[in-house]
Design goal:
The complex is a heterotetramer, with one copy of chain A (764 residues), two copies of chain B (83 residues) and one copy of chain C (234 residues).
Chain A lengths: L21 H6 L4 H11 L5 H10 L2 H4 L4 H4 L9 E3 L6 E4 L4 E9 L1 H6 L1 H17 L4 E11 L5 H21 L3 E8 L8 E11 L14 E6 L9 H4 L6 H5 L9 H16 L5 E4 L4 H13 L2 E5 L12 H6 L5 E6 L4 H10 L4 E8 L3 E6 L2 E7 H6 L12 H8 L9 H9 L8 H4 L10 E3 L6 E4 L6 E7 L2 H6 L1 H18 L3 E10 L6 H21 L3 E7 L3 E2 L2 E2 L3 E10 L16 E5 L10 H6 L12 H16 L5 E4 L4 H11 L9 E5 L9 H6 L6 E5 L4 H11 L3 E8 L5 E5 L2 E5 L1 H16 L7
Parallel strand pairs in A: 4-5, 9-12, 17-18, 24-27
Antiparallel strand pairs in A: 1-2, 2-3, 3-6, 4-6, 7-10, 7-11, 8-10, 9-11, 12-13, 14-15, 15-16, 16-21, 17-21, 19-20, 22-25, 22-26, 23-25, 24-26, 27-28
Chain B lengths: L1 E10 L6 H12 L6 E14 L3 H16 L5 E9 L1
Antiparallel strand pairs in B: 1-2, 1-3
Chain C lengths: L2 E6 L6 H10 L3 E6 L10 E4 L19 H11 L3 E5 L1 H8 L6 E3 L7 E9 L15 E8 L3 E3 L2 H9 L3 E5 L14 E5 L5 E4 L17 H8 L2 H4 L8
Parallel strand pairs in C: 1-2, 1-3, 3-4, 4-11
Antiparallel strand pairs in C: 5-8, 6-7, 6-9, 9-10, 10-11
Classes of the chains: A alpha+beta (764), B alpha+beta (83), C alpha/beta (234).
Bound molecules: adenosine-5'-diphosphate and magnesium ion.
């Protein structure tokens, strides 16, 4: 775009405001190229207020300046897509005029500083992204990463984050249906907190965050504006260090009670048809919400910051524009509607305050007590941030790791399974999800603890399945295969319940993109994600990029969390993950090649993260999904559970152990002779090839299942039979046999995390 | 000597205090309109032995810094009372 | 049809679930906003779960002062049926329509899981449809569910058989450390009942076992409860 | 006159205080073994105008009795401080 100055943008420094010096520019995380563009665009030196506005909108978080070109490679189209990337949330079509809006967002840096509030406000933000679209939130999920639990600080962060996620979602009244938690050294000092929200709406009620109609009024609805989180957006766009500690923004405190009122008021405003547009105030608060709404509508806006209700006296326009106070929305409406809008808000005990209007001059203009303190060409403010395509190069160490093998010295399979089930990465997350209300809204049919959560849409027969997945260990070793694997696992989890995958949202958590090895991970992971989404016809409907997840100890493992939504036409045909009845046949779907590269087996038992992860066979994954979906539709399966971390044996054990509230564990009598006979036992039992699932069915249905699998070209092996309570979990291979007591395994699996978290409050 | 320590942990000034806000609102609708600037925090009481009041306070401060108060969001005040 | 008023407070979040359960059972269920003083001819009042006023200060402490609660007090005094579920139970205790209080769970964390409870008092309007001692599996989801009361109150509740629901005595079936494993109580007249578990979340067979449905069918057909002298309706 | 009121609402003695117990336990595991009899309650601060300290305290007591403390489970103490 030509960098000619736009005539007539003049602005005055706010009284007492610092002069814009090179130091000040640097403090605002703007480099010379960027600052040069700003000066050229304005034809003058920006005021401090304007500099703050640019630094927020041109931060990585708002501008995607290092990720845009890569994100453009994602498939985003399909007959089911109502709204693709670019809005607050993606929207997919459901039967009977319904649609589902969903989105995932990170709140990593705030959670590292203050785990409880950081996580809570993360949930608040993602809820607003969804109800901003006119959708009622019906499900929450969360993906969490911490350093190992033997470090007190990590336990403190883990406990605080879980409490924060729970308290916020519980209070607003949205069930948390799933998620994942991982622990690895790379996350010490830089935990990841990704929250996903899923909402339901009538397709005709969809509203977009657009400012239109010159003369229309801008209103702030909800909480007063304080000095919270000023520069949160740019804070989220730098590495955590001593320096960033010093400039840490004032902690944002969440108020889920106000959020619930804001949710009800917003949905009432939207369905009343009385508003033109609505947008939540997230990162960079009033600045990004107003500038982005204007840009989408191709109009200008004028705001008077002295009209914004503040929590503290003496706030400057700079502070008001950049505040990240929570529980606020920006609404655009015709002047004649303002009275009615205020009335609706008052009913919900909220205030709606006009603070500006839509203009025809395309400028983002800010006044304070009548003085113009910022005047910036709106479109270019949002779109002219330089885009970077950093150099990418794989780290030598990673190449070496892929070629490496673990120290010799085997572990008996019996002990191996017991230790894997006790590993926090694999053990039950019940300690977590019991702190989350998973049944509010009375529509949950499959809650946490299985492969995916499923809710029924009230008044219909169909349900939606939701999951959030990423195995970062695979990405650390091979970002391309790992990216495919993340989508494949999400799709497997959806399909296990009988639902058909519809589309994804993603939260791309990486280190500093200016480091070639990090940008390589990012680019390759996205290539893998894009290919998998093509293969499964699950378009990307939106997401979020979180770079600079680094602490003095280095970058986090590449963690592109995949949030997926699926549709099950007849929710009564849903399939649970755990064995259901004694005497059922146990069938293994998919082929086992015994690949231990990047496996939990090596990581947890040999403390070795290395080897080459299994190459993901997208066709095999897709075929497996088809078998799982068709088998549920034909009511063939009693249970279906996919193989992920820990491989076949962990999947079998989890299915036998039973769900979190099963009265008792079941046994199984299995004979693997004839299944991967050429493989070493640890590869057979604990290898992590994808495209596999453990299903059970009534004995008289075995033939139909094998026929179905054959039709779809999916290997199907009858491993044995589900045994009653008290019976062992027995696995034979040739002559040898291994036996476990399912009751003991159940105790290990469910007690692993509580045992480590028992009354632990240390913060240091 | 045995000392009784009273700790008052309050949300840091400037930070939103939704609880205080809600209570202020409730008080005024109960006819206590006059109540302003309501803040809600935690009151902690404990007993400890120390050679003298100075040491007792010292120990109590360490407890606050380490566990009782959240340095990112809260401020605290102490009173030490001999038993 | 029985008219069932569901009181909505700012922060109620089980209001829709409760309305759906009551309607499915065949009642004429409708909302009453907390600012209304008129229950619109309600036979029965349901106070739903949620976080009225964010549970700030103490769960139910602020909600109990809303105008609608004054009407509920009168309704109860005239013998009308009142059921408080979860936050509704907390509000009824704060309003002194039921004795005792609900405090922070003993384990200090929010707890969401299915709880095993037994119905011990079938003489209330809401439990008339159960067999005495019937075991139920109902979801609980609360942070402040630990029922406490002074010794005399507790003795009276037990002595007069006013404990309506009790958590199964099996090891760690009590999710919150409540005294005597109490999960729900009634007033002596049996027209005011408060329970922590959520029957409205287990009232639709399409979702799973509908152990909670009888709470609502009993309202729909008070005849079933007419045998009890206390199940008065205005 | 403007007064700042400090209210301390504590769980009634005899009632189980799991929070206090947890903190006591955590303190000792942090090496603060000496801390005993830890109780945790609510600290409430507010500002109000009144003709004199007596009236200020009077008003504050009414607020506690009506709303701020639960008579069934809690006891409270107040301090009134002139501004
Ligand atoms: N942070 C969390 N929040 C809610 N539920 C969780 C969380 N972490 C794990 N779960 C539950 O535990 C189940 C098992 O977790 P996981 O082993 O990651 O499953 P999978 O390997 O099938 O993705 C998840 O599907 C989810 O239902
Ligand atoms: Mg799975």
């Amino acid at each position: 775009m030509p960098e000619t100055a736009v005539a007539g943008t003049s602005a005055h420094p706010f009284e007492g405001e610092r002069a814009v010096t090179p130091e000040v520019v640097r403090e605002h995380n703007l480099n010379d190229l960027e600052y040069g563009r700003i000066v050229a665009m304005l034809g003058r030196t920006p005021t401090l207020t304007e500099l703050g506005v640019f630094s927020a909108l041109w931060s990585e978080h708002c501008s995607y300046k290092h990720s845009k070109p890569v994100l453009r490679t994602f498939p985003t189209e399909g007959p089911q897509v109502v709204q693709g990337p670019g809005e607050n949330a993606g929207v997919l079509r459901l039967p009977d005029g319904w649609a589902v809006a969903f989105k995932v967002e990170s709140h990593n840096h705030p959670s590292a500083v203050e785990p409880y509030q950081g996580a809570a406000t993360g949930v608040g933000g993602i809820l607003r992204d969804v109800f901003t679209m006119g959708a009622r939130p019906v499900a929450l999920l969360n993906s969490l990463r911490f350093g190992p639990l033997d470090v007190p600080r990590n336990r403190y962060l883990f406990a605080g984050v879980v409490r924060g996620v729970g308290d916020y979602g519980n209070c607003v009244g949205v069930p948390t249906l799933g998620g994942e938690v991982g622990f690895a050294p790379g996350y010490t000092g830089n935990p990841l907190v990704n929250a996903m929200c899923v909402g339901l709406l009538r397709e005709d009620d969809l509203i977009r965050a657009k400012a239109e109609g010159v003369g229309n009024v801008l209103l702030v609805v909800g909480a007063r504006t304080g000095r919270d989180g000023i520069h949160g957006a740019s804070f989220a766009s730098e590495e955590l260090s001593e320096a960033s500690e010093a400039r840490r923004p004032q902690v944002q405190v969440g108020d889920p009670f106000t959020e619930k009122l804001l949710l009800e008021a917003s949905l009432e405003l939207i369905t009343s048809g009385m508003i033109v547009g609505i947008q939540d105030m997230g990162a960079a608060g009033l600045t990004s919400s107003s500038a982005e709404m204007a840009a989408r509508g191709g109009v200008g806006v004028e705001i008077d910051t002295s009209l914004v209700p503040t929590r503290e006296p003496g706030m400057t326009p700079y502070e008001i524009l950049l505040s990240e106070s929570q529980e606020r929305m920006l609404v655009v409406a015709e002047p004649a509607r303002v009275g009615a809008i205020k009335a609706i808000c008052e009913k919900w005990e909220l205030t709606a305050t006009p603070i500006g209007h839509v203009t025809d001059d395309g400028l983002f203009r800010v006044k304070h007590d009548g003085v113009v303190v910022a005047a910036i060409p709106g479109q270019r403010l949002v779109e002219d941030c330089p885009i970077y395509e950093p150099e990418a190069a794989e780290s030598e160490d990673v190449r070496a790791l892929r070629a490496a093998a673990p120290p010799a010295g085997g572990i008996e399979p019996k002990e191996a399974l017991e230790r894997l089930l006790d590993a926090p990465n694999i053990a039950s997350k019940r300690w977590v999800y019991e702190q989350y209300d998973s049944t509010v809204q009375a529509s949950t049919v499959l809650g946490p603890g299985g492969d995916a959560g499923v809710i029924m849409v009230p008044g219909t027969q169909f349900g939606i399945a939701v999951t959030l997945d990423c195995n970062s260990r695979l990405l650390a070793l091979d970002p391309y295969e790992g990216g495919k694997a993340a989508v494949a696992e999400a799709a497997r989890n959806i399909a296990c319940t009988g639902a058909r995958p519809l589309g994804i949202t993603d939260c791309l958590n990486f280190g500093n993109p200016e480091k070639p090895e990090v940008f390589f991970q990012f680019r390759e992971a996205c290539r893998g994600i894009a290919e998998a989404c093509e293969a499964f016809e699950t378009p990307v409907t939106g997401g979020n990029v979180s770079f600079y997840n680094e602490s003095p100890t280095g970058a986090v493992d590449p963690t592109p969390t995949i949030g997926m939504v699926g549709l099950i036409e007849d929710a009564s045909r849903r399939v649970p993950s755990h064995f259901g009845a004694e005497g059922d046949a146990v069938l293994l779907l998919g082929a086992t090649r015994g690949v231990l590269g990047g496996s939990a087996y090596w990581a947890e038992l040999h403390d070795f993260v290395g080897g080459a992860p299994a190459a993901v066979d997208l066709e095999a994954e897709h075929a497996l999904q088809e078998v799982l979906i068709a088998g549920s539709r034909d009511r063939l399966f009693r249970s279906a559970h996919d193989c992920s971390e820990g491989g076949l044996m962990v999947a079998l054990a989890e299915a036998a152990i039973g769900g979190p509230y099963a009265e008792r564990a079941l046994g199984a009598s299995l004979d693997l002779s004839g299944y991967g006979d050429d493989l070493p036992i640890e590869g057979l039992l604990f290898g992590e090839d994808g495209a596999r699932a453990v299903v059970t069915c009534r004995p008289d249905l075995v033939e139909r299942v094998t026929a179905l699998a054959a039709r779809k070209g999916v290997p199907c092996f009858r491993a044995g039979t589900v045994a009653g309570p008290g019976a062992p979990l027995a696995v034979r291979r040739g002559g040898a046999a291994i036996q476990w007591d399912p009751v003991a395994l159940r105790t290990t699996y469910f007690d692993a995390i509580p045992r480590r978290m028992r009354d632990d409050r240390d913060r240091s | 000597m045995t000392y009784r320590v009273h700790v008052r942990v309050m949300p840091r000034g400037g930070l939103l205090d939704p609880q205080g806000q809600a209570v202020e609102h409730a008080l005024s609708s109960l006819g206590f309109g006059g109540a302003r600037d309501v803040r809600i925090g935690r009151a902690i009481e404990l007993e400890l032995d120390a050679p003298g009041p100075g040491e007792a306070e010292q120990r109590a401060r360490e407890m606050c810094d380490r566990l009782l108060a959240n340095p990112v969001t809260e401020d605290y005040e102490l009173e030490v009372e001999a038993r | 049809m029985q008219r069932v008023a569901i009181i909505r407070f700012p922060g109620s979040n089980c209001d829709e679930d409760t309305l759906r359960a009551a309607a499915r059972a065949g009642t004429d269920a409708y909302y009453v906003w907390h600012r209304d003083t008129d229950l619109k001819g309600a036979d029965v009042v349901l106070i739903p779960g949620g976080f009225s006023y964010g549970d700030y200060l103490r769960a139910g402490a602020i909600a109990r002062f809303s105008p609608a609660m004054a009407a509920v007090q009168r309704h109860a005094a005239e013998g009308g049926g009142v059921l408080g579920i979860c936050n509704g139970f907390q509000i009824l205790c704060e309003a002194h329509l039921l004795p005792g209080a609900l405090m922070r769970n003993a384990r200090l964390t929010f707890v969401s899981k299915p709880a095993l409870v037994t119905v011990e008092n079938t003489r209330t309007l809401f439990t008339a449809g159960f067999e005495p001692g019937a075991p139920l599996r109902l979801p609980v989801a609360h942070g402040d569910g630990r029922y406490v009361a002074d010794a005399e109150t507790l003795a009276r509740l037990e002595g007069e058989g006013l404990v309506v629901l009790r958590y199964a005595r099996s090891e760690d079936a009590n999710p919150n450390g409540s005294m005597n494993d109490i999960a729900g109580i009634a007033n002596p007249e049996g027209n005011v009942v408060g329970i922590m578990p959520h029957p409205e979340r287990a009232a639709d067979p399409a979702l799973g076992p509908a152990d909670g449905a009888p709470f609502f069918t009993a309202i729909a057909a008070p005849a079933a409860a007419a045998s009890t002298p206390n199940a008065a309706t205005t």
